[in-house]
Backbone:
């Protein structure tokens, strides 16, 4: 898994925790020549602030599960959005 912050876009306050969790939950060797899947993580303003590139189907599935465990949901797209095959966002919890 490769990841990088985009310049001049505010990250989520717990971004170090997110990156640490993703690194632990997605550790595995991808086969040589495995296809890459670019994904984006959105900040509270809805802007993609971090790009994550998973290699291979296994790493992609592990990355999606890790993001879901952190409270992120995958946004629905029929085609790539902002250079990402998938984008993820954590919505604030509504209090009643």
Residues:
């Amino acid at each position: 898994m490769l990841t990088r912050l985009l310049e001049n876009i505010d990250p989520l306050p717990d971004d170090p925790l997110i990156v640490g969790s993703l690194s632990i939950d997605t550790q595995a060797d991808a086969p040589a020549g495995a296809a890459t899947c670019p994904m984006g993580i959105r900040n509270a303003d809805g802007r993609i602030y971090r790009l994550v590139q998973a290699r291979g189907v296994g790493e992609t599935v592990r990355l999606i599960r890790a993001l879901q465990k952190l409270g992120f949901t995958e946004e629905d797209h029929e085609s790539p959005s902002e250079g990402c095959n998938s984008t993820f966002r954590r919505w604030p919890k509504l209090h009643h």
Strands lie at 2-5, 36-42, 48-55, 73-74, 86-89. The first strand starts at residue 2 and ends at 5. The radius of gyration is 13 Å. The chain has a mean pLDDT of 86.
